[in-house]
From TrEMBL:
<keyword id="KW-0833">Ubl conjugation pathway</keyword>
<dbReference type="GO" id="GO:0045842">
    <property type="term" value="P:positive regulation of mitotic metaphase/anaphase transition"/>
</dbReference>
<keyword id="KW-0863">Zinc-finger</keyword>
<keyword id="KW-0479">Metal-binding</keyword>
<dbReference type="Pfam" id="PF13181">
    <property type="entry name" value="TPR_8"/>
</dbReference>
<dbReference type="GO" id="GO:0005681">
    <property type="term" value="C:spliceosomal complex"/>
</dbReference>
<keyword id="KW-0498">Mitosis</keyword>
<dbReference type="GO" id="GO:0016567">
    <property type="term" value="P:protein ubiquitination"/>
</dbReference>
<feature type="domain" description="UBP-type">
    <location>
        <begin position="84"/>
        <end position="185"/>
    </location>
</feature>
<keyword id="KW-0508">mRNA splicing</keyword>
<dbReference type="Pfam" id="PF02148">
    <property type="entry name" value="zf-UBP"/>
</dbReference>
<keyword id="KW-0677">Repeat</keyword>
<keyword id="KW-0507">mRNA processing</keyword>
<dbReference type="InterPro" id="IPR038765">
    <property type="entry name" value="Papain-like_cys_pep_sf"/>
</dbReference>
<protein>
    <recommendedName>
        <fullName>UBP-type domain-containing protein</fullName>
    </recommendedName>
</protein>
<feature type="repeat" description="TPR">
    <location>
        <begin position="803"/>
        <end position="836"/>
    </location>
</feature>
<feature type="compositionally biased region" description="Acidic residues">
    <location>
        <begin position="62"/>
        <end position="74"/>
    </location>
</feature>
Length: 919
């Protein structure tokens, strides 16, 4: 999720001079840069590739976008559930439209025309096959926003695309209409007391006396079916008996009779469509919907075939046919002939009529851990999480976790078993026992992992985290559980490194080579180290990476390259990270794990054309991948089309509810538009889903800061600080909040810490100019002029000329009483941004204060000239006095001539000073 990072702009340098009392609102990080409008991508980016099968002939992409409702209203963050809130019905049940539900037609998928695993959409009434992530029902839920589906065989109701089951009393009427069932007492009462019934429209009808649709030319069929449904013994038989083991003709006849006598029908007529299709099939189109036939002839045929179909199907001896089919299927699997295996397996399933017969019949699920794991895994693949959890149990075998006491017990037990085995004289028995114990241990760890999957699907992330941790502690080689912890950010950076130290890597062993076991343990630990958060201890990561790259020649391994690129991204070295992701994608174009980081690098570097090409290619070739729509959303976000970006980020998050980058991007779209409340809601959802990452908490703090709610902003940032203490972005944000709380001393400490950590992780210095700029402003607030000027000069050196920084320098000179020095940086600021109103105002103020200083200098000059005039007058007075006798010999005249030039000099000097003043 670090891929969503952006840097905050520097504080407003001139908030005090401009008279702004409240802090300036800051945009979300992904919206800081001003982005030019780009051309929209072609067809592949403006809609689902799955919609291409229904493409509207020749209609352009822009015309399609104009039809969307996103232009008229701002969509709220979608609601995500794993189950309805306790005590309440599911939120989607209000969308069910009972008026369009018609369960009389044949249960075939409206797209694939398959009758296997069919679901009915309770919003539009259409049938779709399956409910998995690639099923028709799943994509219908995404495309049409229809979320409630009923399985036509099991009558279970599910919400898609989330996939959880809904159990509500409000659905009983739909289940009953789909498959009416009667008790013996209800059947006996049918002829004794005729009870009226009402349809959804309020129309009264009598059960058993309802209309039957005349589809085409099937009135001759309808009359026979209506008559037979009123033959009491036959009617009662079809209402009460179980026809699951009878012919399809008998099953559909029973369904039709039960619907004719349904006292809770939605409408006062039924359609015999399903039964008529079966009749046409069984009669080889002798009796069809389109051609009239003799009713008596049909009655004779129908009763004969119905009688044959009512015979109970006796199971074939499993010792013969089942054995033959199982051997055939296994032989096909061994030769990788999967079509043959599916073909034979389908017949085996039909023959046994039970997909779990062998497992249940021999109690293998209870007695054997591998069988229990396999059965639970199958249930999870079918999204039957409650059943899987019931099979697995809700407790982890923590007694298997290796600790000091357990290790001693294992060693002691191993010693005893060794002596016992030697007493029996068999190394083979000892080896087999050890292998069996190791296998059981691995399966127990794998079942812990499956428990975590079930809890995660139920949004119980705390319990899921514990299950994943126990799985890795029991079996350190259970990488999938470890990957779930890392990829879903269930642990904070500190917790990740602490968890790594608790793992028993000494349990890793190489069969038949004891000396290589320690090396294998170190190798495994280094591999796991590369998966940890890059915010903490990058030196350990670098050591592990270098060892794996050189000693084990894994320098070109995609997973290792991804880890290296992730570290570079954390250090804000985007171009280097992009070079690595490009090299990986050149070898493996559809390595989807690397695309979130690759897209983030392209976004940070403003490479819109490259984003367009990547998004176009992914949307065309892999529309089923959430990453494809993340790419489309990122492209639209880069060209400032926020509504379109939000649409595709939302789609990606709905396809994978645990796709972190999509959630963060979705929330950023609200932040970019200043929709702070909706942004807070989306960030809160991300914080709940990804408990271990601090980024959602940072973004929540930024949004509350933008709303001038400093108390809440500080609380969220403190929460983020508890998760990660080594993110320069977080420290910078905390300093910003302290700055606006009039605590510049604390702000200085946070800014200095952010710059220090950025240097420790070898981050690009230019990426953290905002923190250095904010530090300079904090120094200015503390009246530490020289420190502030030093930081501003460093920012100008690293980042080039910036009008805001130059204006801030001018402000410092003004506050320091040096207006003449402020004029130069303010002139430079206006040279960069001539329309900068604040710089203009500051320059005028600097010029005005400089003028006051000149006036003060003129007053001093006038005082000096007055003193000079007084000195002249005094000298003239002395010359005018009577001279002594010695002076009459002509010396006075000479003296007068010699002082003349001094006077001239004085007059000259006086004139020069006047010229200087005039200048």
């Amino acid at each position: 999720m670090e891929q969503a990072r952006r840097k905050r702009q520097a504080l407003d340098a001139l908030d005090e001079v401009a008279g702004v009392d409240s802090p300036r609102s800051k945009r979300s990080r992904t919206g800081d840069a001003t982005m030019s409008e780009g051309s929209p991508p072609p067809h592949g980016l403006n809609g689902d590739a799955t919609d291409k099968a229904e493409a509207n002939g020749g209609k352009s992409v822009e015309e399609e976008d104009e039809d969307d409702d996103f232009e008229d209203e701002t969509p709220a963050a979608p609601i995500r559930q794993s189950a309805p809130t306790s005590g309440y019905d599911d939120l989607y049940l209000d969308t069910i439209d009972r008026n369009v539900l018609d369960f009389d037609f044949e249960k075939l998928c409206s797209i694939s025309l398959s009758n296997i695993n069919v679901y009915a959409c309770l919003v539009c009434g259409r049938y779709f096959q399956g409910r998995g992530p690639k099923s028709h029902a799943y994509f219908h839920a995404l495309d049409e926003d229809h979320h409630v589906y009923i399985n036509m065989q099991t009558q279970n109701v599910y919400v898609l695309p989330e996939g959880y089951e809904v159990k509500s009393k409000s659905l009983d009427d739909i289940k009953y209409v789909s498959d009416p069932r009667y008790t013996k007492q209800e059947v006996m009462e049918l002829d004794r007391r005729a009870q009226p019934a009402w349809t959804l429209a309020g129309k009264e009808y009598a059960p058993g006396f309802v209309g039957m649709n005349n589809l085409k030319e099937n009135d001759y069929l309808n009359v026979i079916l209506q008559a037979l449904s009123h033959v009491v013994p036959l009617r009662n038989y079809f209402l009460l008996e179980d026809f699951s083991s009878r012919s399809e003709l008998a099953k559909r006849t029973s369904i039709l009779v039960r619907k004719i006598w349904n006292p809770r029908a939605f409408k006062a007529h039924v359609s015999p469509h399903e039964l008529l299709q079966q009749i046409a099939l069984d009669s080889n189109k002798r009796f069809t919907l389109t051609n009239q036939s003799d009713p008596i002839e049909f009655l004779s045929w129908f009763l004969n075939n119905l009688h044959l179909g009512l015979a109970i199907v006796s199971p074939i001896d499993p010792s013969s046919m089942e054995k033959f089919l199982r051997e055939w299927r296994q032989d096909a699997l061994n030769k990788a002939q999967y079509d043959s295996a599916i073909f034979v397996g389908d017949k085996l399933l039909a023959l046994t009529n039970d997909d779990g017969r062998i497992l249940v019949g021999t109690d293998l699920v209870t007695r054997n851990t591998s069988c229990r794991y396999l059965a639970a895994h199958c249930l999870i693949k079918q999204s039957r999480y409650d059943e899987a959890l019931g099979l697995l149990g809700d407790r982890n075998p923590v007694h298997l976790i290796a600790n000091a006491s357990n290790k001693r017990k294992v060693q002691h037990t191993g010693l005893q078993s060794r002596h016992a085995a030697l007493a029996k004289g068999g190394r083979m028995a000892r080896d087999e026992a050890a292998e069996e114990e190791s296998a059981n241990r691995k399966y127990e760890a794998a079942m812990c992992y499956l428990r975590g999957i079930c809890y995660a699907k139920q949004n119980a992330f705390d319990r899921a985290k514990e299950c994943y941790k126990d799985a890795v502690k029991i079996d350190v080689q259970c990488f999938e559980a470890f990957q779930q912890l890392m990829s879903n950010s269930l642990l904070s950076p500190d917790e990740e490194w602490q968890f790594l130290e608790t793992l028993d890597f000494d349990a890793v062993s190489v069969p038949g080579d004891v000396s290589a076991s320690q090396e294998a343990a170190d190798f495994t630990k280094m591999l796991y180290t590369t998966r940890l958060s890059k915010y903490r201890d990058p030196s350990n990561f670098t050591t592990a990476y270098d060892s794996l790259s050189t000693h084990y020649r894994l320098a070109d391994n995609p997973d290792l390259l991804l880890a290296k690129a992730d570290l570079l991204y954390t250090q804000c070295r985007y171009r280097e990270a992009l070079g690595i992701t490009d090299s990986v994608l050149q070898d493996d174009k559809y390595n989807f794990s690397i695309y979130p980081l690759h897209l983030a690098c392209l976004f940070e570097l403003k490479m819109k054309n490259a984003l367009f090409l990547v998004a176009h290619d992914l949307a065309d070739h892999h529309p089923e991948e959430p990453c494809s729509w993340l790419a489309v959303g990122t492209y639209y976000f880069a060209i400032d089309k926020i509504a379109e970006a939000r649409r595709y980020f939302s789609k990606a998050s709905m396809m994978d509810a645990h796709f972190g980058p999509a959630w963060i991007g979705f929330a950023h779209t609200f932040a970019a538009e200043g929709e702070h409340d909706q942004a807070i809601s989306a960030y809160s959802t991300a914080a709940r889903l990804f408990m271990g990452t601090h980024l959602p908490q940072v973004f929540l703090g930024m949004q509350h800061h933008a709303l001038n709610n400093m108390t809440l902003a500080e609380e969220f940032l403190k929460t983020a600080y508890g998760l990660c203490k080594t993110d320069p972005l977080l420290l910078n944000e905390m300093g910003v909040v302290k700055y606006h709380q009039d605590k510049p001393e604390e702000a200085v400490r946070f800014f200095l810490r952010a710059i220090q950590i950025a240097g420790e992780i070898d981050a690009d210095p230019s990426a953290w100019l905002s923190a250095r700029t904010n530090l300079a402003h904090a120094y200015r607030r503390l009246r530490r002029w020289n420190d502030a000027l030093q930081e501003f000069n460093e920012v100008l050196r690293l980042g080039g000329k910036d009008s805001a920084i130059l204006s801030a320098k001018g402000l410092i000179y003004l506050e320091n009483g040096q207006p003449e020095r402020a004029i130069i940086p303010l002139h430079e600021a206006l040279a960069i941004r001539p329309q900068d109103g604040i710089a203009t105002e500051l320059l005028n103020k600097a010029l005005q204060e400089s003028m006051y200083i000149d006036v003060a200098d003129n007053d001093e000059l006038d005082a000096f000239e007055n003193d000079l005039d007084m000195g002249k007058a005094h000298a003239k007075e002395k010359l005018a006095r009577p001279r002594r006798k010695g002076d009459a010999k002509g010396k006075g005249k000479a003296a007068g001539r010699s002082r003349g030039p001094l006077m001239d000099e004085d007059e000259k000097g006086e004139s020069m000073m006047e010229m200087t003043d005039d200048d």
